Amino acid sequence: MIIDSHCHLDYEPLLNNIDKVILNAKNNNISKLLTIGTSIESSKKVLEIVNKFENVYGAIGIHPNSCSNSKFYIDELLLIKKSSKKIIAFGETGLDFFYNKSKKEDQIYSFEKHIDFSLNERSPVIVHTRDADDATLDIIKKNSAKVNFLIHCFTGSIEFAKNLLDLNCTLSFSGIITFKKAEYLNEVIKLIPNDKILVETDSPYLSPVPYRGKPNEPANVKIVLQHVAKIKNTSLEEMAKITSTNFSNLFFNEKK
Ligand SMILES: [Zn+2]
Predict the structure, then answer these.
(1) Residue span of the structural domain in which 57 resides
(2) Quick check: helix, strand or coil at residue 82?
(3) Could you tell me the distance, in angstroms and rounded to a whole number, from the CA of residue 226 to the centre of ligand 1?
(4) Per-residue pLDDT tens for 112-164?
(5) 161 and 154 Cβ atoms separated by less than 8 Å
(6) pLDDT tens readout for residues 224-242
(7) Ligand 1 centroid distance, CA of 187 (Å)
(8) What is the Å distance from ligand 1's center to 174 Cα?
């Protein structure tokens, strides 16, 4: 049983081929998928998808790269959340000071608002963070006693990883870990305790080696998992068990 903890099934070419994509995942032993919203529009599509496919769960959120003026509409997320038990998290939210496509203050407002919703709904928050280590840590620190955070597609430094682990965050790794230029992430993976690690595709983006340049899909999470298992010196089966348990603990147990 393997789980893809982060994909975007509402993006093309996945949405147009969704039956095939989900079947291909099943055929590769991927038992659950978590599809992630990035805007109100996208989150509404996430709701439609989880209503249609039994093994697909959803997270709803507004991406930090497109959260300008979200104060005028962000409350809609709560309505979507309340309409299905299969919406199990808020995100992706977070901070992206690399692209700075939305103003910093808008990003911070939106991130904190997702956290407020999570507090009320007792759901984890899925975080995108890029070139914003300190600001991300500041916000998580203020809330880590009450909310569980999942840092998606981790590509940061060892130090950033340690700081996040100190705040009880779970870290998820994508196909980036198979890229030559990302070899440094092997050292990060080694230090993540087994109960704090997840794997994802972030499909349709970030296809792992040897599929770079092609659209990614959830079935490829197996390649990411295989890589993690190798670094952790264990089997694919064992790592599948570990990450599936982590997924269940994070999203289906009310711990905080
Ligand atoms: Zn994503």
Answers:
(1) 2-252
(2) helix
(3) 21
(4) 999 999 999 999 999 999 999 999 999 999 999 999 999 999 999 999 999 99
(5) yes
(6) 999 999 999 999 999 999 9
(7) 23
(8) 10
Residue position matching structure tokens 């099934």 = 9
Taking the centre of ligand 1 as the mean of its atom positions, its distance from the CA of residue 201, in whole angstroms, is 9
User: How remote is the CA of residue 95 from the centroid of ligand 1, in Å?
Assistant: 13
**Residue 58, beta-bridge partner list:** 35, 87
The Cα-based distances of 41 to 21, 63, 192, 229 in angstroms read 21, 12, 35, 36
Q: What is the CATH number of the domain that holds 63?
A: 3.20.20.140
Distance from residue 7's CA to the centre of ligand 1 (Å): 6
Q: What is the CA(227)–ligand 1 centre distance, in A?
A: 20
CA 36 and chain centroid, separation: 7
User: Rounded CA gap, 244 and 56, in Å?
Assistant: 14
pLDDT at 253 (0 to 100): 80
193 phi/psi in degrees, rounded to 5: -60, 150
pLDDT of residue 143: 97
Strand, helix or coil for residue 176: helix
Q: What's the pTM?
A: 0.95
| Cis check: omega of the bond before 13, within 30 degrees of 0 | yes
36/46 Cα distance (integer angstroms): 7
Closest residue by Cα to residue 207 from 194, 195, 220: 220
Q: How many structural domains are present in the chain?
A: 1
Cα–ligand 1 centroid distance for 92 (angstroms) = 7
